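User: I want to check something. If I give you two sequences, will you return the structure for each one separately, not as a complex?

Assistant: Yes, each is folded on its own. Here is the first sequence with its structure:
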Amino acid sequence: MTPSIDAGRPLVDQAVLDRLREELEEDEGYCRVFVGNFIDYLPHRIGRLRLALTSGDLDGSVDAVLSLKTSSQMVGAQRLASLAMALEGEIRTGGPDADAAVVLPRLAASFLRRISQCSRQTMSRLQDQCSPGASL
């Protein structure tokens, strides 16, 4: 994967957060709780992905990367969702005949550092946007 896959994507798309607020008929508290739950659970999602990839667990890897991608998209974490989407594509490209015990740890080496770094940046940005006085 080239570094340009996630370049140009915002860490957090404010339009997605605005749409979420509208859909929840902003009850501002609920939207903040929703985003807060994403932030709180993100390290667990990354940990599940790391474990599945490094242990060569194909089903677990697919499940973990889909969870990361979907939850990221729901809160507007575009760059993180883009990285998860690229990783998902690589996992699926390996095909059922590929040796998951070899392919998945290689993908871990290629993707996990960037995903972890992006997740930290995303959490920080979302925390800033959800802090008291910030407009969500």
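And separately, the second sequence with its own structure:
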Amino acid sequence: MKDRGPRPIVFLLLVWLLVGACAAPDPLLRSNKHLQLTGREAAKQDITACEEQAERAGLQSGVNRTGSAAKGGVLGTIIGAGSGASAGLIGGLPGVAIGAVVGGGLGLIMGTAGGAYGPTDPDPAYADEVVRCLIAQGYEVSGWQ
């Protein structure tokens, strides 16, 4: 039997990261009488309907987690490489090179994860339209998550 190594695990991890990176924030509803009467499932359907209404009006959510992940990865690589190189000064030129490579790699991983899962806010016009729609239905919106 052929040894496949960690490939299936790496594949599943990448799929999980991509699915999470594509998720957009949703309005955070404050508990009130209307929410208690309708329930969470009906509220989710109302949120989806309001988001679709805003999109039909030509508004876009403006959330781009992939772009945020890429920016975080680049920034993490630069900071990590610089930190690693300065830490490697003790070992001379080979220490600087090794420190820069290791620091850059770790910075890339941490920056990409931080950028993908960092807080994102939707486009203000889109958010306003969705909030107006939800308020008209009786919900109270306290922010986005």
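Because they were folded independently, the notes below concern the second chain alone. The two ends are 47 Å apart (CA to CA). The helical segments are 7-21, 33-38, 40-56, 65-87, 92-117, 124-136.
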